[in-house]
Please model this.
Amino acid sequence: MDASLLIIIAVGLFVVFAIIQYNKLVRLNVQVDEAFAQIEVQLKRRADLIPNLVETVKGYASHEREALEKVVQARAASTTASTLPAVAAADGMLTNALRGLLAVAEAYPDLKASTNFLQLQEELSTTENKVSFSRQFYNDSVRTLNVSVKTIPTSFFVGLAKVGEREFYEVEDPTIRNAPNVKF
Amino acid sequence: MANFRALESANRRKTFFLLFFMGVLVWFISYIAISAFGGSGAGVIPLAVLISLISVWGSYFASDKLVLKMTRAHLIQEADNPKLFNLVHEVCIASGLPMPKVAIVDDPAPNAFATGRDPDHALIAFTTGLLGAMDRDELQGVVAHEMAHVANRDTLVSAVAATTAGIVALISDILMRMLWFGGGRSRDHHGNQMPIFLAIIPLILAPIAATMLKAAVSRKRESLADATAVSFTRNPAGLRAALEVLARDNTVVEARSSAVAHLYIESPLDASAASKLFATHPPIQERIETLRKMEANPNIS
Model:
């Protein structure tokens, strides 16, 4: 075998290697976009459920104005948000407002027993789960992408693929922020 | 080691080594065949490989349809059980997997299984007993365990294990028959040939070892599916509670057979029937303990 053939093989192998790394980065980046779109789909689903929930609660607990107002406002804010930090902030606000409203609902046995509310309950728990799983999947995708962007060999192809580190989706959640109880 | 990422990689590594040993076993039995039986032994090997490949891979490609028949499961649509579909959809979002087909088995024993050659042809099934016995969090744990099998391509892994075990079993079976009927046929080969009686013991032991390795692969995939399920839901308590429900229950699935035993979340066969080395599932108490450790250690992103 002469030298030129060896060089051609080496170059060919390098090109294949580069294509694999490049495609990996692009694929991970697209996955992050898809994961973000999924969060938005689930947030939209939740926003669509809220008018029905608010009406049902109003029927039994109309004087809980504060909790109801918070949910309505947070919903309005969430429908206009578009950038990631804004979406995440509005999402966090709405999550908390909903939790507040459901806590209030606990005090009304008639409301809790109403068929409308019972039907909503399964819808609400699945939607909450879907929202939080889509956040989790987004953050996992970002984590995988960011690791690839920073580690060899994919890090060499970051400029070529025009892919960079992405932002995590962080929700202001007081129940998470509160440090676990320290016991002595 | 009470976090799901460490558990997942440990189980993957163990599966790799087990499959590697199964490969070594195929090589070993082929070596015995050639050295003790000469040319006729060598002819057996491709035959065994071919038969095993055809029988296993045929069922692998049709796994979703075949298993439906064998377990008497019937497919359902979203309108039949919206809550179950919600749960499955949640886990799909958490895992990034496509929506599988969902089936129900009319059976009072609580159990569930997953099959299908790849995530696009996945099928997960639940017995009516399971759906009745579990609350939302527990069911979510079971759904996540089944979707974990889909994500980890366990139908493929068990097909590979079954193929290699099948090859070993076939080779030793055919050679044993050759010994029985025409033992002396290799006498025309002289020289450095292994005496035939030395081949008998490995011929008996190899298929047993292959069956044990196949069962070990299945056990590791169950542990892996538990860990992966937690990576989907981040809620080890749900799956743990579900396994406790299964452990308390001692009814067994009616349409059971050892052919589909490895599919289920809990072994559908009587525990006493198989020794630990041949069991397709790790002891349920051990699985519950592992999940408890994960609950105690939630400091993972």
Chain B has one domain: 4-296.
